[in-house]
């Protein structure tokens, strides 16, 4: 990094020839745009006291934000951070998502993203099933395994194997 700071031409050449580190932009599906928050005249905003873990401070300050969408009656509350402005932003994002889910149903962004994630998970599970099924078939085709043969020869611990011979004189203390 320090070399790049001393010789900026070196960094520009490296960056020009470097490959991207991820392929997510290439492989990304066209998802619906994130929903825009409703207009301010359709929202009732209230700052309320927080609740839950955080002790006395969170219970005394009005940093939690509660928004109500007047046309639909949807109410959301955000107390994600200690900052009132960040909570306002987060609450508006939540409200926009809830309104989008209500208005668009299966075509909402959350539903489409859920379908994409479900397809990926199903594909991964199918690939895993295929892999283990193939391994089982290979084991079955190879015949009995060596581990099973060894277990059968050893017998029960403390007892002589079927192939061992025991000298009766040695057991009685005579040699």
TrEMBL record:
Region (Disordered): 30-58, 114-175
Predominant location: mitochondrion
GO CC terms of this entry: mitochondrion
Name used for this protein in its record: Prokaryotic-type class I peptide chain release factors domain-containing protein
Cellular compartments annotated: Mitochondrion
GO molecular function: translation release factor activity
GO annotation, biological process: mitochondrial translation
Domain Prokaryotic-type class I peptide chain release factors positions: 39-136
Record family assignment: Belongs to the prokaryotic/mitochondrial release factor family.
Species of origin: Stachybotrys chartarum (strain CBS 109288 / IBT 7711)
Keywords: Mitochondrion, Transit peptide
